[in-house]
Amino acid sequence: MLHPTRDVSEVVGIIERWASGHRKTLLVRAEDEHRVPSCVEPVPADELAGRADALISIGGDGTMLGALRMAVRDPKPVLGVHLGRLGFLVEVEPPDLPRALSRLAAKDFTVESHACLACDVCGDDVVAFNDIALVRQPGSGFVTATLAVDGQRYGYYRCDALVVSTPTGSTAYSYAAGGPLISPAADAVVVTPSAPMAGISRSVVLAPEESIRLDLRPNSAAVAVEMDGLVIKEAATEGAVQIRYRRDAGRVVRFDPQRYQERNQLKLSLLDLPFLPDQLRELLPEELRRERDQRELEPPC
User: Which cofactors are required for activity (predicted)?
Assistant: First the structure.
């Protein structure tokens, strides 16, 4: 899986050379065929996960989420290679990739299971590993929707956006809207309104066994529906979103869970600091600072 816009040629070259030396076959989505060497086999996107033993995501968290969604019907280990800016899901930096690939082939890794939200959005089935959101369109009023849990109506929302997230997604849109941080080891669903004007004004944390239903009210403005940040409906004026929590829907490769957790704790601590990027550099541990400086000094390929 390739980031849609970033230059991935350096990382693809590392993977291709490793695969050639270890007699491994590489596949890529047919639409990305022009971005990889001719020895990489293009396949239809809906066949890729079924034919692969593992997936490699080259990009940031968004690319990683796309890889997880691609394999949701037949979960495969997903290795994340970091080309993004912050990245809570990805673990491996490009210089460490050859060793990571060898460990992946030798099955020398642990698997971090991720839950998803299995959603019926106005009759369409979608899955979200971070969140699903109902979002107002600028100038069109507010999102007005009712919340029902296991068929019991709880109340209504009138807000700029309504975000339903997994524990993984609790650090994303829900967090930005004032929602709580949920441990990735927990099983829970968080419903968070952004800029609430009336109705329920706080986050609601629900059990994974509970089914959630959001119904647009007749007086709601047209809303966009986002799945993991991707718009799947642009101007819904009626209908319902039904959501169920699904455990073990994604498998993320981890080589050093402790070091990964420490890095994420640092990233979370930086989110609320009102500093510019060059100021944040001075707050990084020496190891991360050296890695960052080394990447900036390396000449482009």
Answer: a divalent metal cation
d(Cα 95, Cα 263) in Å, to the nearest integer?
17
Give the mean pLDDT of 37-43.
96
Question: Predicted confidence band at 121 (pLDDT cuts at 50, 70, 90)?
Answer: very high
49 is known to lie in a ligand binding site: no
CATH number for the domain whose boundaries are 8-108: 3.40.50.10330
3-class DSSP state for residue 15? helix
The string of pLDDT tens digits covering residues 226-239 is: 999 999 999 888 99
CATH number of this structure's domain 116-247, picked from the four choices 3.40.50.300, 1.20.120.10, 2.60.200.30, 3.30.420.40: 2.60.200.30
228: annotated active-site residue: no
The reply, when asked if residue 228 is annotated as ligand binding, is no
Catalytic entry in 7, 32, 46, 61: 61
Q: What is the DSSP string of 213-249?
A: EEEE-TTPPPEEEEETTEEEEEEE-S-EEEEEEEEEE
pTM of the model: 0.84
Q: Is 62 annotated as a binding residue?
A: yes
Question: At 278, which helix (H) or strand (E)?
Answer: helix 277-281
